[in-house]
Amino acid sequence: MIVALVAGAVLVAFCFGVGAYTFYAACHRGKPVDWMDEQALKQTPFGQFYGHIQAGDAWLRAHPAEDVYIHSHDGLRLHATWIPAENARGTIVLVHGYHSCILADFGLAFEAYHRQGLNILVPDQRAHGRSEGKYITFGILESCDILRWIHYHDQHLSKLPVVCSGLSMGAATVMYLADMELPDSVKGFIADCGYTSPKQIIGKVFRDIVHIPSWPFLWAASLTARCVAGVWLGEKNTEKTLVNNTRPILFIHGTADTFVPCEMTKRSFEASGGEKELLLVQGATHGVSYLKAKEEYIALVNALLDKCLKQ
User: Fold this and answer.
1) pTM for the predicted model, two decimal places
2) Distance (Å, rounded) from C-alpha 31 to C-alpha 47?
3) CA-to-CA dists, residue 246 to 151, 259, 272, 286, angstroms
4) How confident is the model at residue 7 (pLDDT cuts 50, 70, 90)?
5) Does 261 sit behind a cis peptide bond, omega within 30 degrees of 0 on the bond before it?
6) At residue 22, does pLDDT exceed 60?
7) What H or E segment, with its residue span, contains residue 226?
8) CB-based burial of residue 44 (10 Å sphere; 0-12 exposed, 13-18 middle, 19+ buried)?
9) Most-buried pick from 67, 111, 157, 177 (CB within 10 A)?
10) Interacting residues of 133 by C-beta distance below 8 A, sequence separation 6+
11) What are the angstrom distances between the C-alpha of 172 and each of 56, 154, 178?
12) Which one of 18-27, 179-188, 217-226 scores highest in mean pLDDT?
């Protein structure tokens, strides 16, 4: 009996230990990255995008941009870059992905959006870049941050309509906005290769790495997240947040994405209310649909913008 109790206690402790490690590995702020150092960048998954990052940085330096700051609901100082356009017809809020930055995810898009007559607001997500924060919550608290940025935009930067666009974790962040009380200025969404929920994507990566079922380790990770960061990993799910969506939304995903399964975007698309469109880019891996099918991608994005920003 005693042996069984000891064995049970050891098993529970092991599960909690693995769960806590999973939370910290997935959610802790990453090490600082010098995005302009090609050799350092080659040691990360973003090495292939060095040329795009350089091009985006050069464009940004050649255009008037302003650093703006707000505070999150839990007291973090958050940073964003504001790039106004002349005679703008609207603003696009670009939301980057996990352990990424605005240049890696959107450097090549700045010029295209600016040429479309759009102001650009690009926040550093919490626990990224120049924004404070110790923990990444995979869009749960980040969606609250983006809502605050939208309110700041409406009050201090522009009275023009807004479209929110996100890539990967940024796409999930944007989709989680759909069931929040949004200002009338928000007219539509673009979600490129977003996952359904933090719990599901962390569980998927866990299984890919250790090749065992993620339960009960994922439950322990979620409990750790609740105690440390104030969130449950399963509290947001696009299949629920999008049901009552009333704004146009464009879903995009590469069919060869092995990091965030394309199936997750298909499920989000099926669940979403409102006007919606789905672009599946054949052969595109994670986050490269724009590069793989540039003309089709731009055409659908422009069609959404025209629909959302018509006066």
Assistant:
1) 0.95
2) 15
3) 19, 29, 9, 27
4) low
5) no
6) yes
7) helix 217-229
8) middle
9) 177
10) 29, 72, 76, 126, 127
11) 23, 23, 10
12) 179-188
